[in-house]
Amino acid sequence: MKIIESAIPDVLIFEPAVHGDERGYFMETFRESLFSGRGIDARFIQENQSKSVQGTLRGLHYQLQYPQGKLVRIVSGEVFDVAVDMRKSSKTFAQSVGVILSAENKKQLWVPPGFAHGFYVLSESAELFYKCTGYYHPEDDHSLQWNDPALQIEWPLLAAEPLLSEKDRNAKTFAEAPVYP
To answer: Which of 54, 78, 128, 164 could form a disulfide with 102 if both were Cys (CB 3.0 to 4.6 A apart)?
Structure first.
């Protein structure tokens, strides 16, 4: 598996070696030693999968008291996936990384604890699968405004407005949002 560094050193892109023939393909989707070899202690304790239609934007979400690391991949379709550094003590505080993830390119994004995460669906629909290092705690769920100018995220929108949940429509700006120390 190839590891690609992003503009934020803690956010990594994993590109698996795909072994295929006329019958299909095989690929390794996770190897603990790749994480531990980079000093990442990632013990995955929850797995989630979501399906969304084209134009849906989910995020930017994070948990403050119960931070989660996420290893994200797409099993069908294509998304623009984003991680925003919410760690005030970090050199990359308020910076983001955006990557196209698809069933075709099979890339995965490592979103470390301390980051907000979100994605925008580019294909007709997309199924996103992600492993988490922490459990979901709805009482600790925070939503950051996806289009806050302070974040300077260049979303590849297919329409003027994305499809949003009520929670994401009412998300906080970066200036209002609680951050990690």
So the answer is: 78
- The active-site residue out of 62, 117, 120, 130 is 130
At the fourth CATH level, which superfamily is domain 2-169? Jelly Rolls (2.60.120.10)
Q: Is 130 tagged catalytic?
A: yes
User: Per-residue confidence of the chain (181 residues) as pLDDT tens digits?
Assistant: 899 999 999 999 999 899 999 999 898 888 888 888 888 988 999 999 999 999 999 999 999 999 999 999 999 999 999 999 999 999 999 999 999 999 999 999 999 999 999 999 999 999 999 999 999 999 999 999 999 999 999 999 999 999 999 999 999 999 999 999 8
The active-site residue out of 61, 62, 120, 142 is 61
Tokens coding 76: 């069908």
Q: How far apart are CA 58 and CA 42, in angstroms?
A: 24
- Which sequence spans correspond to the domains of the chain? 2-169
Distances (CA, A) of 19 to 16, 75, 76, 107: 9, 17, 18, 14
